[in-house]
Amino acid sequence: MSPMRIVVGFKVTPDYEALRPADWARLAAAGGPAERAEAARYVRRVLGVFDEAALELALRLRDARADHGLPTSLAACTVGGREAVPFLATLQALGFACARVDPGDAAADGGLDFAPTATAALVAACAQRLGGDVLLLGERGGPGGSGTVPFLAAEALGRPCVTGVTSLEPAEYERLRVTFTADDGPARAVAVPPCVLAVGNAVVSMVRVPTLKERLTVRDHPVAEYTAADLGVDVGALLAGSPALTSLEPIDRRRSGVVVPGGTPAEKARALYDGHLRPRLEQP
Length: 284
Prior knowledge:
Elements lengths: L3 E7 L1 E3 L6 H8 L4 H7 L5 E3 L1 H19 L4 E8 L5 H9 L2 E7 L13 H15 L3 E5 L10 H9 L3 E11 L3 E8 L2 E7 L3 E5 L12 H6 L6 E4 L7 H6 L24 H17 L3
Parallel strand pairs: 1-4, 1-6, 4-5, 5-11, 6-10, 7-10
Antiparallel strand pairs: 2-3, 7-8, 8-9
């Protein structure tokens, strides 16, 4: 019996929550992808929460199929630069065959951050190269994500797409039992590969951590690297016709407050009553 081949596409993004106010000011004033990338260059990289859930769901599906004697092969791919290498090493230790797609100079320094058409074309082409029966993607990838990459990748591959996926289970005849969120609540269906599954608010949101032994076992294993030309994708042409997000800025969610004076709980309660509650209670 040939194994079910599952490919997970993921994206590595800067941790925007760690940006300083000065970095956000530069990010908002950036005139293009290179300037945006420079503003976030020294911030640590993280996986998108939906991408991380997709990776863990793939691992859990592999384990569940193994309990039923069903073989499964896992692969993971990402589009981007060298910042993805540590993540690829971790996924290799977890049992993924990994690949990185270099988008080339046309998309260097953050040029694909807000270009879903080009990103989806590269992801779909890489999934085909890796021979995936099932393509798992996060429903949305980081701040400013359009949520259209799974649909565009499914269209490029000519496959059906299920969104809002929250869990996966093996089913008979090499099929998958997919739980997803529909308009009227949770639903369950049987998916027949090949297909594209977009993971949303899954029951798991963090990928497991490999052991040191697992890391040492694959430390010398190479990661497959492809260029856009290798995959037959003209990134420049796709970027020229793609909409772009021109700015990104934070929302100030700070709330004003008052420190209640008093040395004891009783004094604080009295000050709170006299200064805040009594005027409201005495209003006509």
